[in-house]
Write the structure tokens for this entry.
Amino acid sequence: MELRVDRERCIGAGMCVLTAPEVFDQNDEDGRVVLLDTALAPEWEPAVREAAEMCPSGAIAIVSGD
């Protein structure tokens, strides 16, 4: 699974941080998404998928090869 975030599209709702805090954070200055780790642990996958689905602006994209 490859994960991409679009900071320009992000509106700072913070749903990703609440859902998968091991993977996402928010920038202190603008509140937009920050990807903490590009090497995702397998156990984080369900939370990351949920965060992408819950993102109100669609700023999180999952690109999977499977």
